[in-house]
Amino acid sequence: MRRRDALSLLAAGALLPGRVAGHPTPPEGDPDGTPPTRTDTGYGPLARIEVEGATEAVVSDDGTTAFVAATTGYAVVDVSDPDDPAILAERRDLLADREGGPLAGIYDVKLSGGTLLVVGPANPGQSDLSGALVVDVSDPKNPDRRAFYETDYPIHNCDLEGDRAYLTANEGDRRALSIVDVSDTPTEIGGWSLRGHDERWDDLAPYPRTLHDVFVQDGVAYLAHWDAGTWLLDVSDPAAPTVLAHVGRDPETVVEQYESGDDGYDGLPGNDHYAAVDEAGDLLAIGREAWATEERPEGGPGGIDLYDVSTPESPTQLSTIAPPPTPDATEEGVWTTAHNFEFRDGILYSSWYRGGVKRHDVSDPADPRELTWWADRHHAEFWTARVAVPESTFVAASRATGSAPAALYVFPDADGETTWGFGNDASTPTSAETPTATGTPSRVSTPGFGPLAALAGVGAGAFAWWRRRDRP
Fold this sequence. Notes:
The structure is a single chain. Helix content is 6%, strand content 37%. It is mainly beta. It has a single domain, classed as Methylamine Dehydrogenase, Chain H. The strands form 8 sheets. The chain has a 5-stranded mixed beta sheet, with no helix packed on it. Strands 3-30-29-28 form a 4-stranded antiparallel beta sheet, with no helix packed on it. The longest helix is centred in the middle third of the chain and has 10 residues, at 251-260. The chain is globular and about 55 Å long. The protein starts with 9 loop residues before the first strand and ends in a 5-residue tail after the last helix.
């Protein structure tokens, strides 16, 4: 769990001055047949460190420390030396002494100053205990549990701005946002619900209007509500949030398309999975996590759409960043659909599961330009990409695959491309211009809501969560 992989070093002109990098050696007897002594050509990770159960990751303001959600807990990783990351602290079996504990299914963490928010379970059935753990990480080596806010709903994702926590609250018919003051004893101080805003959404089943994620900046919350679209809320008064804009279809259209089979929970259109804005709040990105099905092969994979929201009341779509190619875009196939991302200084850092990580120049958002693409389809399935030190490093968390354990990678914040597994020969780095993917490896699922429990009368909403048990 704490082993740092030895790197085969290769001088790389495309990297930062004085920097060398190589690909960590794959496991012995790797079933995909990849040579055990390969190195990246021109661009590759500086290092990776195994973190069991890794999912989301966030980085401290100074770029030296990464905090990783790790399914059964969280880890604090020192990335100040990008060639030699080290685990500073690791906490597992959280709140095991509480009734229903420990807290499990931890897929998300968020950081604000010296406070870390750890939430779970992501999905029903992963833990009998649900809630948000507030941790003082002002000393990263010694995280100190400050408080716990227990909920009657699972928390798939969250955000933290100052002393306000923003929680996804999906349970039964409720698909809502909860706002909690965590400055002292955690207390709910507000919230917002789609149905409370517009009762026409009552006609849509709960799961396609799920609040999947929330991003908050400068008092505006960006809610990715799956097929119900993305909502921009003014949350400066948490007791009375007001809608600034809605990006998506009207409720009658969604209901009609969903009931007619022209839409589906798994595929496009819709599937607003994650939304975030740039530092100025003028450029909005909406990632659409989607898969193809036999009935709707055009349903996936999903990309990232860019919108001008400089006038929040009038969002205007500017462009779409397409997902990496895949030979099988279904849930059972090779996942290359969009996942989490971050804007920084005119660059969009994005993750695409088996499709790797990318950097795009979005200074002209109508014409985004790909700068970086690194993928290792058999050994890495990226959940997020986050800036560490601008113009130096960024980090990306990969969950486990059938060939490699979960890990946190450190990449140079530089241009380049190496795409293992997206060419005719998986052992050869290939260009992105004419990729032809090779065979599909087995996938290790993140622990989730098992089929026996799903069949035991858990209801339609929970069953939908089970169908997506190893999705973020």
